């Protein structure tokens, strides 16, 4: 027959185990509640961030209608704790990896073998869209260690493939047919070139002959006015880490910006 003391000790241990178990369950439940609360807060923040994005796009369009050339909408407080920011890039400042000839790719990449790898990849995937996005370059041998941020700031898969000579790097200018060292220097020296004929007026007759020999090719390859813009739009709530981000493709029209596509990031 068990002693009363032993039974009381066993009961006490059982109670302690139950208390510990209930404490563990309560802590786990509290963690779940807090996690769900954070998820809900993030969802609300993202929703409000998307509203802020729409506001920033409206501000960008209004400024473009007024000034016809807007590159940045600085971080703005929109009220009720929301903010937004826009950075606009002329896609003619970047080389299109789907359409650029090998010489331009080699100049932009500073590596002919990498340009050959891109060209080979495109040849195996005909149809004009071998690369759906810049990240797809990582599938091409030789690009594994190339920083995606560098690729993203120098190349694109959007737009019509034309280049603005006022915006591209000097090494890309030097790879364009018909532009000798004098013509490249004239572009880099400024002011902004508004057309091939204007450029011809800045250079010597010998350099102008080189330009004329490739006039048709250059006319098809270059643009001097924004034709495709990419806006990186961010929106969020002050104090919240979750932010809404997206890429917006825009086409400048006479007095407004037309939204062609919106791609969440």
Describe the structure concisely.
The protein has 265 residues and is α+β, with helices and mostly antiparallel strands. Among the domains are: 11-91 and 227-264, Pantoate--beta-alanine Ligase, Chain: A,domain 2 (2-Layer Sandwich), CATH 3.30.1300; 98-154.
Would you write up a description of this structure?
The protein is of the alpha+beta class and 265 residues long. Among the domains are: 11-91 and 227-264, Pantoate--beta-alanine Ligase, Chain: A,domain 2, CATH 3.30.1300; 98-154. Helices cover 48% and strands 18% of the residues. The chain contains nine helices and seven strands, in the order H-E-E-E-H-H-H-E-H-H-H-H-H-E-E-E. The protein has helices at 4-67, 102-109, 112-124, 148-154, 170-175, 181-189, 196-200, 205-213, 215-221, and strands spanning 72-79, 82-90, 95-96, 155-156, 229-237, 243-252, 257-264. It has a five-stranded antiparallel sheet with strand order 1-2-5-6-7, with helices on one face. Strand 6 and strand 7 (257-264) form a beta hairpin. The protein is elongated. The relative contact order is 0.14.
- Tell me the distance between the termini: 73 Å
Unreliable segments (pLDDT under 50, ≥5 consecutive)? none
**Cα Rg:** 29 Å
- If helices are DSSP runs of H or I spanning 4 or more residues, what is the number of helices? 9
Structural class of the helix and strand makeup? alpha+beta
The level of helicity is: 40-55%
Q: Per DSSP, what share of the residues sits in E-state strands of 2 or more residues?
A: 15-25%
Name of the CATH architecture of the domain at 11-91 and 227-264: 2-Layer Sandwich
The biggest sheet amounts to: 5 strands, antiparallel
What is the 3D form?
A: elongated
What is the CATH third-level topology name of the domain at 11-91 and 227-264? Pantoate--beta-alanine Ligase, Chain: A,domain 2
Mean pLDDT rating: 85
CATH class assignment of the domain at 11-91 and 227-264:
Alpha Beta
Number of strands: 7
**Biggest sheet, spatial arrangement of strands:** 1-2-5-6-7
Q: What is the succession of H and E elements?
A: HEEEHHHEHHHHHEEE
């Amino acid at each position: 027959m068990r002693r009363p003391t032993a039974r009381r000790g066993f009961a006490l241990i059982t109670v302690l185990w139950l208390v510990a178990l209930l404490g563990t369950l309560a802590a786990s439940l509290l963690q779940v509640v807090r996690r769900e609360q954070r998820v809900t807060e993030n969802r609300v923040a993202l929703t409000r961030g998307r509203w802020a994005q729409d506001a920033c796009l409206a501000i960008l369009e209004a400024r473009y209608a007024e000034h016809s050339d807007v590159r940045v909408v600085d971080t703005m407080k929109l009220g009720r704790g929301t903010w937004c920011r826009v950075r606009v890039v002329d896609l003619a400042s970047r080389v299109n990896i789907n359409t650029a000839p090998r010489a331009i790719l080699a100049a932009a990449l500073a590596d002919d073998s990498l340009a050959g790898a891109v060209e080979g990849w495109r040849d195996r995937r005909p149809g004009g869209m071998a690369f759906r996005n810049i990240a797809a370059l990582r599938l091409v041998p030789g690009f594994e260690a190339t920083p995606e941020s560098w690729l993203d700031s120098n190349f694109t898969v959007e737009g019509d493939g034309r280049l603005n000579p006022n915006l591209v790097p000097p090494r890309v200018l030097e790879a364009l047919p018909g532009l000798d060292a004098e013509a490249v220097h004239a572009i880099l020296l400024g002011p902004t070139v508004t057309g091939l004929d204007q450029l011809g007026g800045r250079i010597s007759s010998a350099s102008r002959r080189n330009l004329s020999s490739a006039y048709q090719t250059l006319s098809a390859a270059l643009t001097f006015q924004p034709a495709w813009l990419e806006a990186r739009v961010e929106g969020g709530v002050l104090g919240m880490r979750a932010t809404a981000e997206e890429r917006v493709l825009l086409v400048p029209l006479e007095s407004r910006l037309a939204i062609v596509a919106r791609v969440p990031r």
